[in-house]
Amino acid sequence: MLFAQMKKYVLDLKVNTKTHLHENYVLLKFTTQNGEQLPDMLPGQFVEVRIDGSPTTFLRRPISINYIDKKSNELWLLIQLVGAGTRQLAMAEPGNIVNMILPLGNSFTFPENKRNKLLLIGGGVGIAPMLYLGQTLKNKGYTPSFLLGARSIRDILQLKEFKSLGETYITTEDGSLGERGYVTQHSVLQKIHFDYIYTCGPKPMMMAVAKYARNNNICCEVSLENMMACGIGACLCCVENTIEGHVCVCKEGPIFNINRLSWQI
Amino acid sequence: MANLNVEIGNLRLKNPVMTASGTFGYGEEFADFIDLSRLGGILVKGTTLHHREGNPYPRMAETPAGMLNAVGLQNKGVNYFAETIYPRIRTIDTNIIVNVSGSTVEDYIATAERIAQLEQIPAIELNISCPNVKEGGMAFGTSCKSASKVVKAVRKVYPKTLIVKLSPNVTDITEIARAVEAEGADSVSLINTLLGMAINAKTRRPMLSTVTGGLSGACVKPVALRMVWQTCKTVKIPVIGLGGIMNAMDAVEFLLAGATAIQIGTANFIDPQITIKVIDGINAYLEEQGCDDIKDIIGGLIY
Questions:
Q1: Touching check for B47 and chain A: CB below 8 Å?
Q2: Is ipTM > 0.90 here?
């Protein structure tokens, strides 16, 4: 097989709408310029966004796909403003054009048994890919539940959307919404035995989730966000240590079954 | 359309635009974005005798107008290349050139011998300039004596076009170029990355697992251009220029400085279609200048 993965495109997409979720998060909804259908994209995949107009930003920024709205032909990106690159991207206004390479990476996988209990755990901006994953699972006939964690009530993003897709549990570090503490301390984990956990968030959180999953014999997939340059498996910068050695997160990930990783958990 | 053909040793290139090793995978990674057969050549990922895992993560740090990398020649070894990758890419209608690296002279010889058996590989680029490996690599390329030694040894076993990739991390790159020319190199390519480093002041830690790494991207272009110009005046063999080429005008500057061909590296990460834009842009420049042959501008710097 010469080129086994999904066909990738370099596209100029138009900003349709922009919403400040609060001062650190912006939701940008993109569509094609000419009304053409967006390429197929899978939950867990990401896009590489070119950042124009920031003198200190040289490389593209990998951003996970937050949601694909098929009806309105929109790609949603949830941007956390962390550095010069993401701040510049968040300055895009409706009508502006943003260049992207997409779709990149693999995707989450789906269990055979549609009656399996699935828990999607997102921490901070790591909730982003969980929305599209949740919608996809629901469309396929699964019943996903969500566990969202953040520092405080104002950092819990897109709650309405998650609630519309399934049971949604919440932890905040300050107790301002849901249970106080970290996601792994939520009481639902004591009450329900889940068969499958998907998670995305800060690495310490994902490692804690992975440890919980391993100790309880739960299948678990994590979404990694190692620093990358090319996003297409050419530069070999974003490698993760796995049981097969170094592999590119951008090409063989970003989604990994925890059994494939060399995490000490 | 102007005539863009150039020659490097026995190599015929349909145009002077090639891709730099380590920035273009094995070409396949870019097949969704461009017609690979339009390229003058593809320099595939650095290949060593044995499998190498490369350096630990983190291996990359962004810098103003550039990036540092410390990949450390991760590859599955020359036999894997010959048996698994080569059959997939051999039919791409361009010059597929293998970048060969090693820790010892014997490694270089054995790897070059194996590549020489591959019919559709018309040339190798001998990497004596990788800054990211503990043994070999740049150590060979930073003294005339060791550079001569490895080139002499490989020249004996490798009959096809032999390109030697030079390190900029030397006092005088033209001395090294002269030394490898004297040992029978058909061409030199320069520059490999400049040794650099980056620090996270908040954590007080280096940004790269190896502390230092190779700097590439737009920021290195003036240094590369100067070294290419100096080397072109010094050696008779064709020079391949690279370092920070981000667009067609950058490429033209290297040609004017005397480079017979150019390689595009880090720019592939930002625009996977940049190579084609550069080919078209060079052609447009030639037409604008009233030239019908690329050779009219090679070394055409007026000073």
A1: no
A2: yes
